[in-house]
Design goal:
It comes from Lachnospira multipara. By secondary structure, this protein is an alpha+beta fold. Helix content is 38%, strand content 25%. The chain contains 18 helices and 21 strands.
């Protein structure tokens, strides 16, 4: 062996065929050895093992080998390799054979000090493989009969998402019952599952399914697979899911499917897909919680809502293109952190939704939350001199905290509000003994009022207001605004007017620092209007990055929830504003009829202005 040859127990040599194995006799002589074994010792053949062990360990080695009685035995000794280096090796004795002449023992050796190198090379190969799969958004599957787990994954360049993890039969029933398989191909699909279940050596099937598009588009996919022998000799089924190129002539089909499911900027799921996925997952758990259908499916889920702190400053100082790069980095980092443990989606400008699987206790959830918060912070630690990009996270757990998606989302959103309120760069997960009272106060008023037919009553009242308005416009508007203040349980209804948007009329409480509404002329406030002429916010603290002047004004007034409606029709020069404000520290989502009634009030004020050419009310 040449002097420039470097020995490393690398990934290639660590596979089953290249393990360092030999057979020794009763005199510790290697009578049979494979090539990796002889290479390690410098191509020395038929040598006594005691020649290479450290001198002070020679007797211990012989005692160790002599003590072998047929059961696998392990020990650690120093051996001199072909370079003359003393290296620590793990020795395994196994599979004793008995010949007519003497006892023979199989021996395997592993250079312990090289395991770190092996691990790095294996991880590097795994990352390269994932990146290659990710270039074409590959879907793969595996099935292991020893634990009866079928697993399907989708690869991205920077991550791997686990889409299904359950028993094979449960996956078959789930795909059929949820409508992911075309009725015409159910027989073919069942046959495919049978081939996987029976460990058929190789197989291929063309199935019409909507599994890649979450039921949005049926497409022809080819499931192809084979039986694979693992390192330890166990067998599993592995396979790929390919598009049937002959089934479509549209060369943009893959891009179209990707656009339907994924956020182009960040590479995570879009809002529609992640929301529907979460709802279907929770629904499936609820529907089958009393049978064995979901035994191997994720049943303990966590909902995480993540909001990027100081993102508005990035857009303001560096532009939206740079802001997009920040979001893309966050998407990649989240996929790296979460890995197979869940799925990620982008649900708003700088908001992400994460669904975590198999969260069996708060410590496990806390570990994920801490990892996300810390690694997002460190991702941008040296990017900006005057501020830091961090994140705030709110979380809830299914089924501990709630059994339906909407309620889980509301709880997580409430926890996010607490994280923001406490100063950002932190996480809060729902704990009943701490948060229940405040959360109950924040529960959507619509949920409570709808039960009593509040919407119907409101419609009846509005019809009377319209009748009254035809007779006495000013009095009708005044009565309506008083009604809103008293019935909707708001603290203050205000009208601002003029170039300086000075306070003109208040119904209810006069708020601190509410002499004007000049914040309505700020770019941030106008951007939130989005040409709708109004905005509603259940928690104004959430918009601090987008509209800092508006958020600060609400903070000075102690307003937590508000509806803001522009009076007139000039978005560029706002000279009138109607506000409906709730104060305190418990955010409450506005009911739809509350918003609509407020808009009707603003409409009637605009009619009054146009008819009388005189502003507002006496």
């Amino acid at each position: 062996m040449s002097d420039n040859t470097i020995y490393v127990d690398d990934y290639e040599r660590s596979n089953r065929l290249n393990r360092r194995i030999a057979t020794i006799d009763a005199y510790y002589l290697a009578i049979v050895a494979n090539k990796p074994f002889t290479e390690y010792f410098g191509d020395t053949r038929f040598s006594n093992l005691t020649e290479f062990v450290a001198e002070e360990e020679k007797i211990n080695l012989m005692d160790f080998i002599d003590s072998y009685e047929g059961q696998e035995l392990k020990g650690i000794f120093h051996f001199k390799n072909y370079k003359g280096e003393m290296r620590l090796n793990l020795i395994t004795l196994f599979a004793q054979k008995t010949s007519s002449a003497r006892s023979e023992i199989n021996i395997e050796m592993v250079d312990v000090e090289s395991l770190a190198n092996i691990n790095e090379l294996i991880l590097d190969d795994i990352k390269k493989g994932r990146a290659l799969f990710g270039l074409t958004k590959e879907y793969t599957f595996t099935y292991d009969m020893t634990d009866d787990i079928f697993k399907m994954c989708r690869y991205d360049i920077f991550s791997k998402d686990t889409l299904y993890k359950m028993s094979l039969i449960q996956w078959r029933e789930f795909m059929i019952n949820e409508g992911f398989i075309a009725e015409s191909d159910i027989g073919l699909f069942k046959n495919l599952v049978g081939q996987i279940l029976s460990y058929e050596q190789s197989f291929s099937a063309k199935i019409t399914t909507s599994m890649r598009t979450q039921k949005q588009i049926m497409e022809k996919l080819i499931f192809t697979g084979m039986v694979y022998n693992k390192y330890n000799g166990d067998k599993i089924v592995i396979g790929r899911i390919l598009t049937d190129e002959n089934a479509h002539t549209n060369s943009n089909l893959i891009e179209m499917i990707s656009d339907l499911s994924y956020d182009a900027l960040t590479g995570v799921y879009n809002k529609k897909t992640i929301t529907e996925y979460a709802k279907s997952l929770i629904s499936a758990n609820n529907d089958h919680k009393h049978d064995n259908y979901m035994d191997s499916y994720p049943t303990n889920l966590a909902i995480l809502i993540l909001d990027v702190d100081n993102f508005k400053k990035v857009n303001d100082l560096y532009g939206h293109m740079y802001g997009d790069k920040i979001l893309a980095r966050i998407g990649r980092k989240l996929k790296e952190i979460i890995g197979d443990g869940g799925v990620i989606g982008r649900i708003g400008g700088d908001e992400f939704l994460i669904i975590l699987f198999d969260i069996t206790d708060e410590n496990l959830l806390r570990g994920y939350l801490r990892a996300v918060r810390t690694q997002i912070k460190w991702e941008f630690i040296n990017d900006f001199a005057d501020f830091n990009i961090t994140c705030s996270i709110g979380s809830s757990i299914y089924p501990k905290d709630a059994s339906n998606y909407d309620e889980l989302f509301r709880i997580a959103d409430f926890c996010l509000y607490i994280a923001k309120e406490k100063g950002r760069d932190r996480y809060v997960f729902y704990r009943k003994e701490i948060h229940e009272e405040a959360y109950i106060k924040s529960i959507t008023s619509a949920d409570k009022k709808n039960v009593s037919g509040r919407e119907v009553n409101e419609l009846r009242y509005i019809s009377k207001v319209i009748e009254h308005f035809a007779k006495n416009k000013r009095q009708a508007i005044s009565d309506l605004l008083t009604h809103i203040q008293e019935t909707f349980n708001v603290d203050s209804v205000n009208i601002y007017r003029g170039e300086n948007l000075e306070l003109y009329r208040t119904f209810g409480q006069v708020l601190d620092n509410s002499s004007n509404a000049l914040y309505a002329k700020s770019p941030g406030f106008k951007s939130m209007l989005c040409e709708k002429m109004f905005l509603e916010s259940s928690f104004v603290g959430r918009v601090a990055d987008v509209a800092p002047e508006f958020s600060e004004a609400m903070h000075q007034r102690n307003v937590i929830c508000t509806i803001q409606i522009v009076l007139g029709n000039d978005m560029n020069n706002i000279t009138g504003l109607l506000t409906i404000d709730k104060v305190g520290n418990a955010p409450q989502k506005w009911a739809e009829y509350e918003i609509q009634t407020s808009l009707i009030a603003a409409y009637l004020i605009n009619v009054l202005i146009a008819d009388e050419d005189r502003p507002y009310l006496k």
